Amino acid sequence: MFNKENVIELFKNIKDYWSPKIIAEVNNEYVKIAKFKGELIWHDHKNSDEMFYVIKGSFDLHLEKEIINLNQGDFYVVKKGIKHRPVSKEESWVMMIEKKETKHTGDVVSDITKTVDEQLK
Q: Is residue 55 part of a domain?
């Protein structure tokens, strides 16, 4: 299904913000990339952790009791059940790793929510 790819080149194909694309599978995990700009809705993932790794730019990861600033090269793991909301003033490129069954915006559905089928590249 997947071959050698260049992550920077893959980001060039992403046009919409907050629209993750699945670029690889590792065991029971999806590796996704997305462009962030603006604010995503508050949500959580009740049964899985989610890792964010900043490829380019920076963003603030709002948690219920704190805000984590992530810059290029930084990563952070949001533990399962923790409500979070990424906020990016400027465009940032982010890689995420999460279980295959993890829903884009948890149980919160909005016009920005993407299904797994929509995330497949």
A: yes
pLDDT of residue 44: 85
When pLDDT is averaged across residues 44-62 and rounded to a whole number, the result is 94
What's the domain range around 114?
7-119
pLDDT of residue 108: 57
Measured CA distances, 97 to 21, 42, 82, 94 (Å): 11, 18, 16, 10
**H or E segment to which residue 119 belongs:** helix 116-119
- CATH number, domain containing residue 23: 2.60.120.10
Q: What is the CA radius of gyration of the chain?
A: 13
HEC letters along 47-102? CCCEEEEEEECEEEEEECCCEEEEECCCEEEECCCCCEEEEEEEEEEEEEEEECCC
Residue 93 lies in a domain: yes
**Domain-located, residue 2:** no
Looking at the 3D structure of the chain, how many domains does it have? 1
Tokens coding 72? 């290029």
Are 119 and 20 a contacting pair, CB within 8 Å? yes
